[in-house]
Design brief:
globular, 8 strands, 6-stranded mixed β-sheet, two-stranded antiparallel ribbon, alpha/beta
Length: 206
């Protein structure tokens, strides 16, 4: 995410895009933020264990997410699978209803695990969790294959973004945010019995 795209670092583009979307979400929606690749960049063992829930899942969380995310620096490895496991096993613990992970990454797993394998098992055992994947300027067939599998085997969606505009649009679509919606969510099938749990992976912060 330290690479430049159109004169700006990809990490800065991603942070700005997330901030522009979370500020338009309904305060009823529960969101959280987990990041990886943000520390221990020179040590593979430590770097591949570096995945932290920096903003727990709560309603009306946009301000805290954006503040924490603004402090993140891209330095490390890409433990996608470990982050997904931690999200499912720990971050979602005790949360009922449908849950969704939005995985935003500019690269594939590089920590000796395969997110596709984990997602296949998850899709067969947990029907309450979907993983949407947003590929940000990825030109790697293997990474694309793994990420596509991760989304589709959990009944999630795959989005591909190549610049700031398409990244913002992908986040809008993933979060059902309409530019005309007063409360930041679209009018289609919103269940008022529970707020949809949405979980961000701010990812591949190399």
């Amino acid at each position: 995410m330290n690479d430049y795209l159109g004169g700006s670092k990809k990490i800065d583009i991603a942070i700005n895009a997330i901030a522009s979307i979370t500020s338009r979400l309904s305060p009823l929606i529960h969101t959280g933020l987990r990041v990886y690749g943000h520390k221990n960049g020179f040590n593979q063992i430590l770097g591949c264990n570096a995945s932290d829930l920096v903003s727990p899942i709560i309603p009306n969380n946009a301000e805290n997410i954006n503040y924490v995310l603004s402090k993140i620096r891209a330095t490390g490895w890409t433990p996608i699978t470990r982050s997904l496991k931690n999200a499912v096993n720990y971050d979602f613990a005790g949360i009922t209803g449908q849950k969704r992970i939005i995985l935003l990454t500019d690269g594939g797993e590089n920590c000796d695990e395969r997110p596709c394998d984990y997602a296949i098992n998850l899709g067969q055992t947990r029907y309450d969790i979907k993983i949407d994947v947003i590929e940000f300027a990825i030109d790697d067939p293997l990474a694309d294959s793994q990420l596509k599998c991760t989304a589709l085997t959990t009944s999630g969606k795959l989005y591909k973004a190549d610049d700031a505009e398409s990244l913002t649009r992908s986040l809008e679509q993933a979060l059902n945010v309409s530019t005309d919606a007063l409360f930041g969510f679209s009018s289609e099938s919103y269940d008022h019995k529970f707020a949809e749990e949405i979980y961000f992976q701010a990812t591949n912060l190399r």
